Structure formats: structure tokens, C-alpha cells
TrEMBL record:
It is an enzyme of class 1 (oxidoreductase). InterPro entries: L-lactate/malate_DH, Lactate/malate_DH_C, Lactate/malate_DH_N, Lactate_DH/Glyco_Ohase_4_C, Malate_DH_AS, Malate_DH_NAD-dep_euk, Malate_DH_type2, NAD(P)-bd_dom_sf. NAD(+) binds at D40, N103, V155, G156, N157. This is Malate dehydrogenase. SUPFAM superfamilies: LDH C-terminal domain-like, NAD(P)-binding Rossmann-fold domains. Pfam families: Ldh_1_C, Ldh_1_N. The active site is at H213 (proton acceptor). It comes from Takifugu rubripes (Japanese pufferfish).
Length: 359
């Protein structure tokens, strides 16, 4: 059976890199047929037509159908995965707060639309599932048995707060089904360490991005390992330069998005698309044994004292399409201060967003 995947902002630059990877099986598997739903705003429909033509012209065997639309009820109907990219990127000179105001309303609307249209009705389930559902009469069964596969990844910035707002606007979808993209930051951090050590990036594992996808994020390598020509060791031991690890390394990762904008005059797109693929593929197929990755998830119940009602980036492990925060990693004072600073920014962003949406 094909799965239905919607990408919003499908006429934009991230989508242009992303759609090909999804359609050729890099994310949901090499034998998983796909229906791609491309959602954008009305003025972009002519551009979407061109994207549809190009996808057809790729002649990809897994791609069963491409549906361009500007209507959320079409876009979100019965989807298995939603990748919410559509929103305005920051341009040079723009502040983060400008972006919050421009974008957060989109995610309120889209969360509500997901709640309304993505919900499968009991009627659409097989008769066997309908019988079990009637017998169980439990909402949690409904969630566990069926909704669990419906994953919503928020990419549009400010990604954490947009994700929180989308999730709050979709009360029938479990909070666990929402996540936001900090995998790009994770990949940036792994890559910086790999370059410094002169190894390929797959030799670095378990870096952590804590907090917000912003310049307050904390890229933490205290628990990361590097395979240095056959010998696995901690990153501090391998790099042997604490000043760099606590200074330029952190600021390079924190400010990388801004550096790309300054240089390209456009927000990162190829690397963002690659990170989206990594994030979704790990949700679908799970993380490797003994490894964790970073993603923004609902903070409730975390063991790190992060305020609960936030989407905060944590180290997570994923199995059976269910993520779990890696608990109990030792946190030193240096890390604690940085984790708290990024949490404080997220609290402020959340409050500004809620305030703004209530006006
Ligand atoms: N989380 C991350 O790591 C990360 C990385 C890079 C970019 N981003 C963010 O991703 C977003 C998109 O970036 P881009 O470079 O592709 O931008 P873009 O301007 O090239 O494309 C955005 C697309 O979204 C569409 N859009 C706007 N409002 C929409 C709506 N309500 N519904 C559907 N579509 C809508 C636009 O018409 C446009 O086609 C930005 O917010 C950017 O900051 C996040
Ligand atoms: O607007 C920014 O500073 C960041 C843009 C994007 O999210 C990125 O990380 O490349």
C-alpha cells in the first residue's frame, strides 16, 4: 500500500531538494510506494505544476501519485506523515521575532487543519479494527493502534515554537507525534568534529543539540564518541582542545544558519533537506543500537529539569516509530548553564507566540 506524505511549502527551495529524496525511497524505504501531496499557497500553484512535471520526469518507480494543492483539507487528508516546511525563511537583516510573528499563525492554522482532516474515522478502519476499537472503547488504543504512525515534523522557523503551537492546535493528535527539526544542527556539529579530527562524519556519534533551533542552542559533545582510525574515544580526548570545543565549535554550530544566509543570501536548503530525510528515516526505521540523535520533542517528563510545556531538542532513541529521551546523562555546570539559557529563550518565545495568537 502506498503511504501518503504531505510536504508544505512544496514550491520552495527546501522542498526542491527534499521531494526527490523522498520520492526515490531514501526516507520511507526502497520498497515503500508513496503518494506525495504538495501543499503551498494559491500564488505558488503554477510553480507547483512545474515541480509536479519534474517529479513525473524523474520516472521514479515508487512514486505512485503527486497531488498539488492549496487546500489544507486535501493536503492533510489521511496522511501518514506531514513535513511542515511552508513558511517564510529569515532574510539578512531580519530578526527572529519578525519571523515568529510572520510564521506562527500558519502553524496554528495547520495544526487545527491536521486535527480536523488528518483524523481517520472509525469507518475507514478495517472491520476487525472497528470491532477491537468498539471493544476497547479507549482513546489510548486508538492512539497506539492507529494514530501512532501519523508523524508531523515541523521545519519552518522558529521551528520549536511553531511545533508547539501546531501540537496545541491539534488536541486529538498525541503530542508524541510532533517533532521539530534540529537534526541539521546535529549534523553540523558532527561534521565540525569530524573535520577537526580528520575523519569522515559517520565516525562521529552521539553529539547532542539541546534546546532551541536558534543561536542559543547548545551543541554538546561531552557524551559524543569518535572512531579515530579504529579506536573509539570521547570527543574531548580525540580533539584535545577544550578551548575550541567550548568556544568556536559551539558558536560555529549556533551561527551556521546565519552564516549560510549571509553567504548565499538564501536560507540553507540542501543541508536542511538532507537533515529532514535523516530525521524522518530515523523515526520510520529507528536509531542505531547504542546511538542517539537530536530532535525537538515535547519536554514533558524529561529528567533534565527542562520546563515541561516546550518543544525542546533532546538526545533521543527511536524504536517502533516511538522516540524516547535518553535520560540520566551526567550534566556539568558548563552544560547546565547553556541548557537553561536556551530553555529560557523557548519559554519567552512560547509566551510571545501565545500572546500574539490571542490578540
Ligand atoms: N529547522 C531547520 O533546521 C530549518 C533549516 C532551514 C530552513 N528552515 C525554515 O524552513 C522554512 C522554509 O524555508 P525555504 O528556504 O524552503 O523557504 P522558501 O521561501 O524557499 O519556501 C517556503 C515556501 O512556503 C510556502 N508557504 C508560505 N506560507 C505557506 C502556507 N501557509 N502553507 C503552505 N505553504 C506556504 C511559500 O509559498 C514557499 O513556496 C523557513 O521558515 C526556514 O527558516 C528551517
Ligand atoms: O534564520 C536562521 O538564522 C537559520 C536558518 C535555518 O534554520 C538554518 O539553520 O540554516
Amino acid at each position: 500500500e502506498p503511504i501518503r506524505v504531505v510536504v508544505t511549502g512544496a514550491a520552495g527551495q527546501i522542498a526542491y531538494s527534499l521531494l526527490y529524496s523522498i520520492a526515490k525511497g531514501d526516507v520511507f524505504g526502497k520498497d515503500q510506494p508513496i503518494i506525495l501531496v504538495l501543499l503551498d499557497i494559491p500564488p505558488m500553484l503554477p510553480v507547483l505544476d512545474g515541480v509536479v512535471m519534474e517529479l513525473q520526469d524523474c520516472a521514479l518507480p515508487l512514486l505512485r501519485e503527486v497531488i498539488p494543492t492549496d487546500e489544507v483539507e486535501v493536503g492533510f487528508k489521511d496522511i501518514d506523515a506531514a513535513i511542515l516546511v511552508g513558511s517564510m525563511p529569515r532574510k539578512e537583516g531580519m530578526e527572529r521575532k519578525d519571523l515568529l510573528k510572520a510564521n506562527v499563525a500558519i502553524f496554528k492554522t495547520q495544526g487545527a487543519a491536521l486535527d480536523k482532516y488528518a483524523k481517520k474515522t472509525v469507518k475507514q478502519l478495517s472491520s476487525n479494527l472497528q470491532r477491537i476499537f468498539r471493544e476497547e472503547k479507549s482513546k489510548s488504543f486508538w492512539y497506539k493502534g492507529h494514530h501512532v504512525s501519523r508523524q508531523v515534523l515541523v521545519v519552518g522557523n522558529p521551528a520549536n515554537t511553531n511545533c508547539l503551537i501546531a501540537s496545541k492546535s491539534a488536541p486529538s493528535i498525541p503530542k508524541e507525534n510532533f517533532s521539530c527539526l534540529t537534526r541539521l544542527d546535529h549534523n553540523r556539529a558532527s561534521s565540525q568534529v569530524a573535520i577537526r579530527c580528520g575523519v569522515s562524519s559517520d565516525k562521529v556519534k552521539n553529539v547532542i543539540i539541546w534546546g532551541n533551533h536558534s543561536s542559543t542552542q547548545y551543541p554538546d559533545v561531552h557524551h559524543a564518541k569518535v572512531d579515530l582510525h579504529g579506536a573509539e574515544m570521547g570527543v574531548y580526548e580525540a580533539v584535545k582542545d577544550e578551548a575550541w570545543l567550548r568556544g568556536d565549535f559551539i558558536s560555529t554550530v549556533q551561527l551556521r544558519g546565519a552564516a549560510v544566509i549571509k553567504s548565499r543570501k538564501l536560507s540553507s536548503a540542501m543541508s536542511a533537506a538532507k537533515a529532514i530525510c535523516d530525521h524522518m528515516r530515523d523515526i520510520w526505521f529507528g536509531t542505531k543500537e547504542g546511538e542517539f540523535i537530536s530532535m525537538g520533542v515535547y519536554a514533558a517528563g524529561n529528567s533534565y529539569g527542562v520546563p515541561e510545556d516546550l518543544i525542546y531538542s533532546f538526545p533521543v532513541q527511536i524504536k517502533n516509530k516511538t522516540w524516547k529521551i535518553v535520560d540520566g546523562l551526567p550534566i556539568n555546570d558548563f552544560s547546565r548553564a547553556k541548557m537553561d539559557a536556551t530553555a529560557a529563550e523557548l519559554v519567552e518565545e512560547r509566551d510571545t507566540a501565545l500572546d500574539f495568537l490571542s490578540q
